Amino acid sequence: MAEAEAMYRRALEGREKAWGPEHTSTLATVNNLGLLYKDQGKMAEAEAMYRRALEGREKAWGPEHTSTLATVNNLGILYTDQGKMAEAEAMYRRALEGLEKAWGPEHTSTLGAVNNLGLLYASQGKMAEAEA
């Protein structure tokens, strides 16, 4: 994992230098670094990367773009892992609503968001909501 982090950092530095900190390709690397940090258990670092990616993607593409919503979903997963259930639910609901608009209710990305929300509800003992 240390090698992966070094490569992401190298890519991030190069993209920031070439395209700037808010370029969408730079933000993709920021999001990927967040995924790596989450996998490493570095939750604060992961959240910082996701927040940066989210803010940049919202500026570049808007709040309902599917790439923006992917980062919203990543934040939901992170918050779930941290036990921040209200924050996780807010992220999952935002991702779900946006994906339903973008792709429709039957798209696999939409259904992934449905599944995440259902798992969150089940973990809280909200079985009726989870079943729905």
Describe the structure.
This protein is mainly alpha-helical and 132 residues long. The protein folds into two domains: 62 residues, no CATH class; 68 residues, Tetratricopeptide repeat domain (Serine Threonine Protein Phosphatase 5, Tetratricopeptide repeat, Alpha Horseshoe). Helices cover 84% and strands 0% of the residues. The protein has seven helices and no strands. Helix 1 runs antiparallel to helix 2 and helix 2 runs antiparallel to helix 3. The chain is globular, with a radius of gyration of 15 Å. The mean pLDDT is 95.
CATH class label of the largest domain: Mainly Alpha
CATH architect. name of the largest domain: Alpha Horseshoe
Percent of sequence in beta strands: under 5%
- Give the ordered list of helices and strands: HHHHHHH
Total strands: the figure is 0
Radius of gyration: 15 Å
Biggest β-sheet description: none
Distance between the termini: 38 Å
Unreliable sequence segments: none
| Secondary-structure-derived class | mainly alpha
CATH topology of the largest domain: Serine Threonine Protein Phosphatase 5, Tetratricopeptide repeat
Proportion of residues in helical segments: over 70%
- The tally of domains stands at 2
Mean pLDDT: 95
Tell the overall outline.
globular
Q: How many helical stretches?
A: 7
The CATH superfamily name of the largest domain is Tetratricopeptide repeat domain
Keywords: TPR repeat
Organism: Lasallia pustulata
TPR repeats: 27-60, 69-102
Protein name: Beta transducin-like protein het-e4s
